[in-house]
Write a structure and sequence with these properties.
Mean pLDDT: 87
Order of helices and strands: HHHHHHHHH
Structural class: mainly alpha
Number of domains: 1
Number of helices: 9
Radius of gyration: 23 Å
Helix content: over 70%
Strand content: under 5%
Distance between the termini: 100 Å
Number of strands: 0
Low-confidence stretches: 262-287
């Protein structure tokens, strides 16, 4: 008889990573009150992030790291030490620079890929969130499987839980902000908005990674070893707070884009709660 325990464990890990990401997607979608995106479209965007951007990003990062390591070994000068993927400095360069630029670029490509399905300004951040949450789901699943192979099901589920309340939200938020800039370029004619918001997404990603790696960064900076565990916990809590703050900001951006008159772009907007004046129309005076 075939042992099915391995399949069951894989299914549990997959659901543990998938369900929070889909729940976040529902949450983001509900921020758009007028003409919410059809689920078929959102799931295609989600799959692009999961099975397209994640895999390509992993391959590109391995290739870039390999090339950088070879360069640093061929030219062993201090100024090339950060390219060595086997060094502490090289790992930080990967986490804080290479990964944010590569991953945000590939996730942004998913938003651009589906530009023909955009109808209005609010669609941009919703599309970006869908791609980013798909990326976050699959990346989290891969990390969870690694932890499972090393420490069992409990270890895998623990890592998936931590990433589901931090990294998954960050990926959705950062790409949503690129989507906002891309839609602004299309619908508001803001030249350069796509590039500016891409750099914003990269900055958000790098900042989150810096918080999550706070203990290792402080240790590499020469602080005493006893600080590391406390910095790890503090950095993790700060990263989680950052991620939740970012997704809340994204939901606000979507809601404001959904009712663009609420922004300063349309100063003559009158909120629905303000009723028109009752009574007869004003008297018209003529000569």
């Amino acid at each position: 008889m075939v042992d099915s325990s391995g399949f069951v464990d894989f299914l549990v890990l997959t659901l543990a990573a998938l369900l929070p990401a889909l729940a976040y997607l529902v949450w983001v979608r509900q921020s758009e009150r007028l003409g919410q995106e059809p689920w078929g479209l959102l799931l295609r965007l989600f799959l692009f992030g999961a099975l397209g951007a994640t895999i390509i990003a992993g391959v590109l990062e391995v290739v870039i790291l390999d090339i950088g390591t070879k360069i640093s070994l061929s030219y062993p000068a201090p100024e090339f030490a950060f390219l060595n993927g086997n060094s502490t400095l090289g790992v930080f360069f990967l986490v804080l620079v290479i990964a944010p630029f590569v991953e945000e670029g590939l996730k942004a490509a998913g938003v651009v890929q589906y530009r023909s399905s955009m109808r209005r300004l609010a669609d941009g951040p919703v599309f970006g969130a869908a791609v980013g949450l798909g990326f976050g789901f699959f990346e989290t699943l891969l990390y969870g499987l690694g932890a499972f192979l090393a420490g069992g099901l409990a270890a895998g589920l623990t890592l998936i839980f931590v990433r589901s309340i931090s990294s998954v939200l960050l990926h959705g938020s950062s790409t949503a902000m690129f989507g906002r800039g891309y839609a602004s370029n299309i619908y508001q004619g803001r030249a350069g908005a796509s590039g500016a918001y891409y750099l914003l997404a990269v900055g958000m990603h790098a900042s989150f990674n810096a918080l999550a790696s706070l203990g290792a960064i402080l240790l590499a900076a020469g602080l005493p070893n006893w600080i590391g565990p406390y910095a790890d916990v503090l950095g993790l809590l700060a990263a989680i707070a950052f991620a939740f703050g970012a997704i809340e900001h994204v939901r606000t951006v979507i809601a404001q884009s959904d009712f663009p008159g609420a922004s300063a772009v349309h100063p003559r907007y009158r909120p629905p709660s303000v009723k028109p004046r009752s009574g007869p129309p004003p008297r018209q005076y003529t000569k």
